[in-house]
Design a protein that fits this description.
175 residues, mainly alpha, elongated
Length: 175
């Protein structure tokens, strides 16, 4: 990790980097070792502050790749001003990345509906009326079908991956 910190310190010492970090953060897509060292450096800096030799600029790095990486550092972020950022990294980004590729294709119906609900709350919060209505309609339909024990629920639970909206989306993009 020491070599990694030395390299970061050298990069952070550049004048252009100092100017950039005054207004922006740096997303860091990295493989596992890169994620590991960045997370360790961020956690140590948050935990020990000026008592460690890690440069303060390391807190401007945002590891991108694993939700687990974020889980490691989020417990050290307490400021109320970061709540939206925490929510974004905890809920919205993983939900949008997982909804189709993992949940829908993997036929994980209950998790799919839970994620639709989380996305609905985000769309509602940001006033995206068309998106929040369609998601709410799906949630309402599922609740109704479940309550009356409609056979479509079993079909959805067992064959979610078959219900693909691509033909509809493709048709709409042509119109």
């Amino acid at each position: 990790m020491n070599d990694y910190i030395k390299a970061l310190t050298k990069a952070f010492s550049l004048f252009e980097m100092q100017l950039y970090l005054m207004n922006y953060i740096i997303p860091v897509p990295a493989d596992f070792p890169g994620q590991l060292y960045i997370r360790r450096a961020i956690v140590q800096k948050l935990k020990y502050g000026n008592q460690c030799s890690i440069p303060k600029e390391v807190l401007s790095l945002v590891p991108i790749l694993a939700h687990a990486g974020w889980s490691t550092i989020k417990s050290y972020i307490f400021a109320l001003g970061y709540c939206t950022f925490v929510d974004l990294l905890d809920n919205l980004i993983p939900a949008t990345l997982d909804i189709y590729t993992i949940l829908f294709r993997g036929n994980n119906f209950d998790q799919y509906i839970e994620t639709i609900f989380r996305l609905w709350t985000v769309m509602r919060r940001f006033g995206q009326k068309n998106y929040d209505k369609i998601m709410l309609a799906l949630i309402s339909d599922v609740q109704y079908w479940t309550s009356i024990q409609h056979p479509i629920i079993n079909t959805l639970r067992n064959n979610l991956w078959i219900f693909d909206e691509y033909p509809v989306e493709n048709f709409h993009s042509l119109v």
